[in-house]
């Protein structure tokens, strides 16, 4: 499962821990180099925050980035670059993200890419998965499960639609402790990571997805609180159809 030069597409600082913390350690123990391409800041745009928080937006972005760098240093991840794209806006910046991906693939001679699963955990995860789909077929692409709401239940580190190719990593007590510590290092996200389990991580070769359709039937994870009648900074009110339309629009562009 491990290549020699691995690139992780990280939609938000913390996804590298949620999805593949132990896998990173095992890959490095096998002699692999692990690189991280961080695709968004992990922070909403300033105008999406409460009015009293907007002036702190630059500090929030800087804090999240500092946490990511600290975790990367601890786990042994080489940070390729940090993006200035706000969370929930990756779909509008696919061109720039793919250019950064191609540059990293070529410059680092990557032989394996890890991406979050297409499972509706977050719209940026799903867009990152699509980016993995665009990788040169000579480069192996694997996806990792994070969280989803398939069957109207929250699942952690389980694919929404298993296909028999999954490989489960059962974390040792030491790996579980290391993952908890890495999650704890993202203090700015402490309220959002309570559902993450540390007993296992799950990978598989990138599945064949129909990106014109939602990842699964029913409400996706990021849709669970869209019933709230007012705009809340922590709730993503994006519809899956908007994500699919953005992907389709990008895919329809002439190849460079």
Descriptive keywords:
256 residues, Rossmann fold, seven-stranded mixed sheet, two-stranded antiparallel sheet, 9 strands
Tally of domains = 1
Report the helical percentage.
25-40%
Radius of gyration: 17 Å
Strand content range: 15-25%
CATH topology: Rossmann fold
Could you describe the 3D structure shown?
The chain has a single domain, classed as LmbE-like (Rossmann fold, 3-Layer(aba) Sandwich), CATH 3.40.50. Helices cover 33% and strands 16% of the residues. It has helices spanning 15-29, 57-75, 94-107, 123-133, 173-185, 240-251, and strands at 5-10, 33-38, 77-82, 112-116, 140-144, 147-148, 155-156, 167-170, 200-205. A 7-stranded mixed β-sheet has the order 3-2-1-4-5-9-8, sandwiched between helices. A two-stranded antiparallel ribbon has the order 6-7. Helix 1 packs across helix 5.
What is the strand and helix layout of this fold?
Layout lengths: L4 E6 L4 H15 L3 E6 L18 H19 L1 E6 L11 H14 L4 E5 L6 H11 L6 E5 L2 E2 L6 E2 L10 E4 L2 H13 L14 E6 L34 H12 L5
Parallel strand pairs: 1-2, 1-4, 2-3, 4-5
Antiparallel strand pairs: 5-9, 6-7, 8-9
Helix pairs in contact: 1-5
Task: Give a brief description.
The chain is of the alpha/beta class. 33% of the residues lie in helices and 16% in strands.
